[in-house]
Design a protein that fits this description.
Shape of chain A: elongated
Structural class of chain C: alpha/beta
Low-confidence stretches of chain A: none
Largest sheet of chain C: 6 strands, mixed
Oligomer: heterotrimer
Number of strands of chain A: 5
Number of helices of chain C: 8
Chains: A alpha/beta, B alpha/beta, C alpha/beta
Distance between the termini of chain A: 29 Å
Low-confidence stretches of chain C: none
Largest interface: A-B, 127 and 117 residues
Strand content of chain C: 25-35%
Shape of chain C: globular
Number of helices of chain A: 15
Radius of gyration of chain C: 18 Å
Radius of gyration of chain A: 29 Å
Mean pLDDT of chain C: 88
């Protein structure tokens, strides 16, 4: 029998440790809220209001119109009008501006004469994605401005032109998340990250701590089997993990308006299975590590960072090198994240997510079995 | 002074006798750096592009092949209906669908406005944004070409005496011209690992002494409490500096990124930063009874502070209240400094305000923590 | 008479260090058997092998008829063990510790309750059920630890330096508890390095550097070696070995 009297005794005792260390419990329950708050309010992956400085060497109606064309998109904020190229570059160096536009002298004269002008755009490339999107917006703004002056010039020459001269216009639509709120994308993922972090941290110490304090020896002399001990130790932390999940689901949908389109039972079932994966990893670390400090570092390397970095929570897995992608393949968090986004945003069901669900389940069982096997009955 | 030296010597012997500790101090950071360095990339490549072409023209094929040649998009086949598109999104075959309406090429040839639709799987809004951005740039380039062609055609029709103005944009990307996210992320990762290791190490080591009761030995010794604090923190400062040395050289060699600025400026700034993390670690140890508490308290401080200090997301995009809050976090300044030195080659002349902030914040945190620690001792 | 514990040519080595060097002895049912020796003599190692948490290098042994080699799981259901650290959970209350040990020995709720009353009575902890264990003084911790080790009424109890760090009065009380247990038929296997406690044992074995150097009842040993106390005998034996 999986749950027997001994398992219950161990689970009760472990629950008492949790309740006695009230501060750790509070942290375990507050961390998801802190993450929710940060990702809902502080971090947007949407890039706008890029600080732009313009070194305008022309100072005419035409150059002002060009500046307007840049800022009208709402993407650029005019942050400074430096008096020299050096000053502009200093702004970039200090990070007070992210892009700089240099309008050459004689800009309007060239336009009037129908000559080609070059304007230079300096972009801070340190953060490459922002730089890319900045370039896209700037080139679109300049292209549309050029279109206008071409039409104006043509019309002045007596060629009546329709406003649109041969242009490809791209309509954009994002299905499943039409408002393109990064919140909707991030918040479901927080469930996986928080569970990875909390479960690993809480459980990675439980066995090694008993070993340091000598109570493990006492436990080993009782008829409780390794399986009893491992399962008993898992139960209270499993409950905490599920409580964290529930809090994020409730706050995410009710407060932050994240849609939950799919099957809620699928969500609970896979969360429950994922919790066992996290616990299995934590207990595996705890039964292998020689002391608490080592256990903590191992759980940071094996669970906290991978949950955060390799799961696809923030950084796309498909852009990682092949070796790292292979590592991500054996991470339960990767599969759980696919399930979470599928259930929340796409409304995917059991059949669409069958592969991920089965994989996760297999990993959960395997990890718990390995943790129980690895946990030795003997000392020395 | 002698007593402090004795204490420091003892701390070193204790810390370095355990071979596992040496592994923890030197191997763990390098492992973390390698993992982070290879995995954390915000570069998006291989966006799966499906084509829904109701025009089937040379023009539509050309636009698609330009997208594929750019390297950002992978040709992921075609779709022909809404249902098929939905299946492609759900199965993950497609991230982005480009739809060409019938008459797309005809309209272009006639010099009229032609429309394409970009439909993306918005469940990954970050990827979607970037996919729209890349596709937008490709279409912008195409438009520039069309503009020139159209103007030329008009000129030919009306006679060659007309001159039409054009504006060409000459972009120059500074600091990171190949726009590789690794150049941006790796210096940040160095800051991240430094924070993780030094805060955890300091807070847990001191809490461990509390748990095992050896701290009482120090209290009953004739050492003054200020001597205890100095003696306890010097080893961590030295170990911290060793980690700095190790991880910076490791980062440069393993990932082949160029350090444009001065390495001594970097070490100096790292030392100022260590003052902060030691202070924070010391403070956490005064409020923690067990190693688990120390660990959890460190994590709840470190992870959020990394997020709002600009590790992966620019602070300037955050709400103003969060930006104010970030002024209190040493990591914010350290990220600016380390990226400034690595990527921009900045020195004291530019980075002195951040260094000053680190110094002031560090001494304040350290003194507060030391006072609290001292109260606990006596 | 059937032996409760039987050990033949037991050896344990850690690398090149021999902790237990070819020892042979047996313990009768209901006997208090003392294992005497200085720190590092091999006392704890022997106990751990008998409890089934440490594998022996060679030799054989049985506890209540079960082989220590391949029946260690069966042994665990008939023994009680109290390690020298009084392994209690400091953040749990007295009652919670008792309930826990009752539970992992598979006792039913009613059985646990009955044994709990008995333990509280025996250890003099009545009225302290809700106290946090970490705040108890040494003597109480020691008696609670004993109570938890025998909650399932084991046939053999292994006590590893049960009186280390406890005041003399508590020690005396503890030994009278032990005597009571033995009188009711429980076999007691106890290690100590306090020579004055040796007199409380029915039979003793003196162990030094992993070898048994003398064995018998305290009286036998004293008369055979013509000494007035066992401490002298022990010191002499060790001198003769050096």
């Amino acid at each position: 029998m999986l749950i027997n009297r001994k398992v219950i005794a161990i689970a009760k005792k472990e629950a008492l440790h949790v309740v006695r260390d009230i501060r750790s419990l509070i942290i375990a329950l507050i961390l998801p809220l802190v993450f929710l708050f940060i990702f809902a309010y502080a971090i947007t992956l949407d890039i706008d209001h890029v600080k732009l400085a313009v070194f305008d060497q022309d100072r005419t109606q035409a150059s002002r119109e060009l500046i307007n064309a840049m800022t009208a998109s709402g993407y650029f904020d005019l942050a400074a009008l430096p008096g020299s190229g050096k000053e502009l570059e200093l702004g970039l160096d200090m990070g007070s501006i992210k892009a700089g536009l240099i309008i050459p002298p004689g800009f309007s004269r060239h336009i009037a004469r129908g000559e080609t002008n070059s304007v230079q755009l300096l972009v801070d490339g340190t953060e490459s994605n922002s730089a890319n999107i900045t370039l896209n917006y700037a080139s679109a703004a300049i292209a549309s401005y050029t279109g206008n002056i071409v039409i104006a010039a043509m019309n002045r020459k007596g060629m009546s032109l329709k406003r649109d001269i041969g242009f490809i216009e791209a309509g954009q639509m994002a299905v499943y998340n039409p408002s393109m709120r990064s919140r909707n994308f991030i918040i479901p993922g927080i469930i996986a990250v928080i569970m990875s972090i909390i479960l690993a941290i809480l459980t990675s110490l439980t066995i090694v701590k008993e070993r340091e304090q000598g109570t493990l020896e006492q436990l080993l002399v009782t008829p409780a089997t390794p399986r009893d001990i491992i399962i008993g130790k898992m139960i209270p932390y499993w409950v905490i993990g599920m409580a964290d999940m529930l809090m994020i689901v409730l706050a995410g949908t009710l407060i932050f308006g994240v849609p939950l389109k799919g099957d809620i039972f699928l969500l609970f079932f896979t969360s429950g299975v994922f919790a066992f994966c996290g616990l299995g990893i934590g207990l595996l670390i705890s039964s292998s590590a020689a002391n608490q400090q080592l256990a903590i570092q191992l759980s940071v390397i094996l669970s906290v960072l991978p949950g955060f970095i390799l799961s696809g929570f923030l950084f796309p897995i498909k852009s990682m090198p092949k070796v790292i992608q292979a590592v991500a393949l054996i991470l339960p968090a990767k599969y759980f994240l696919i399930i979470l986004r599928g259930v929340f945003l796409r409304g995917s069901g059991w059949i669409a997510l069958a592969f991920e669900t089965i994989t996760l389940f297999g990993m959960g069982v395997l990890l718990v079995v390995i943790a129980a096997k690895r946990f030795k009955r003997k000392i020395g | 002074m002698r007593r402090i030296i004795e204490l420091v010597r003892k701390e070193f012997i204790q810390t370095l006798r355990d071979k596992r500790m040496i592994g923890l101090i030197f191997v763990a950071p390098l492992l973390q750096l390698i993992m982070l360095g290879y995995a954390v990339t915000t570069d998006v490549k291989h966006i799966a592009l499906c084509v829904w072409d109701n025009d089937r023209s040379r023009e539509s094929r050309e636009l698609v092949s330009k997208a594929v040649v750019s390297g950002y998009f992978d040709d992921s086949g075609t779709v022909g209906s809404d249902e098929e598109m939905e299946r492609a999104f759900k199965s993950g075959r497609s991230d982005l669908v480009i739809y060409f309406p019938p008459e797309y090429s005809k309209r272009i040839k006639r010099g009229e406005k032609a429309k394409v639709e970009l439909i993306a799987d918005g469940s990954d809004s970050n990827l979607t944004n970037i996919a729209f951005g890349y596709m937008g740039q490709i279409i912008n380039l195409e438009n520039n070409k069309l503009q020139i062609e159209n103007v030329a055609r008009l000129k030919a029709a009306k006679g060659a005496e007309i001159k039409v103005p054009l504006i060409e944009l000459k972009p120059r990307v500074l600091y990171n011209p190949e726009m590789k996210s690794a150049n941006y992320m790796i210096p940040g990762e160095i800051g991240l690992i430094l924070t993780l290791i030094t805060i955890l190490l300091t807070s847990m080591s001191i809490t461990k002494e509390k748990e095992s009761g050896t701290i009482e030995q120090l209290i009953v010794s004739p050492l003054r409490s200020s001597e205890v604090i100095i003696g306890k923190t010097i080893p961590f400062a030295v170990i911290g500096m060793l980690i700095v040395l190790f991880i910076i050289t490791g980062g440069i060699f393993v990932f082949n990124i160029t350090l444009k600025g001065n390495i001594f400026t970097l070490f100096f700034a790292s030392f100022l930063f260590l003052l902060n993390t030691l202070g924070i670690g010391l403070f956490i140890s005064t409020i923690s009874k067990t190693q688990q508490q120390a660990m959890l308290s460190s994590i709840i401080f470190i992870l959020p502070s990394i997020m709002i200090s600009g590790f992966a997301f620019p602070v300037s995009n955050m709400p103003i209240e969060i930006q104010w809050l970030s002024y209190l976090l040493p990591l914010r300044y350290f990220f600016i400094i380390i990226r400034g030195i690595f990527l921009k080659g900045a020195g004291f002349a530019i980075l002195w305000p951040e260094m000053l902030a680190l110094f002031l914040l560090g001494t304040t945190v350290f003194i507060l923590a030391a006072l609290r620690f001292r109260k606990k001792l006596s | 008479m059937q032996m409760s514990v039987q050990v033949n040519n037991l050896v344990k080595t850690f690398g090149s260090f021999t902790a237990v060097d070819d020892i042979t002895f047996s313990v009768e049912k209901g006997e208090i058997f003392g294992f005497i020796g200085p720190n590092g003599a091999g006392k704890s190692t022997t106990i751990r092998m008998l409890c089934g948490i440490l594998d022996q290098t060679s030799g054989a042994g049985t506890v209540e008829g079960f082989s220590i080699k391949d029946e260690s799981e069966k042994i665990k259901s008939v023994i009680g063990y109290m390690s020298q650290k009084f392994s209690l959970y400091d953040d749990l209350t007295v009652e919670e510790n008792i309930n826990f040990y009752g539970g992992i020995h598979g006792l039913s709720r009613a059985e646990t309750k009955k044994r709990k009353d008995w333990i509280l009575e025996m250890a003099g902890l009545r009225g302290k059920e809700k106290n946090i264990t970490g705040a108890l003084s040494g003597g109480w911790r020691q008696r609670l630890s004993l109570g938890c080790a025998i909650i399932h009424a084991p046939k053999v109890v292994f006590l590893d330096e049960p009186t280390a760090g406890v005041d003399p009065i508590s020690r005396r009380e503890f030994w009278s508890l032990i005597r009571g247990l033995a009188d009711s038929g429980t076999t007691i296997f106890v290690t100590t390095h306090y020579m004055d406690e040796v007199e409380f044992c029915d039979r003793i074995a003196m162990i030094y550097k992993g070898k048994i150097v003398a064995m018998g009842t305290p009286l036998e040993l004293k008369t055979a070696n013509k000494v007035v106390n066992l401490e002298m005998l022990f010191v002499n034996l060790i001198r003769s070995m050096e």
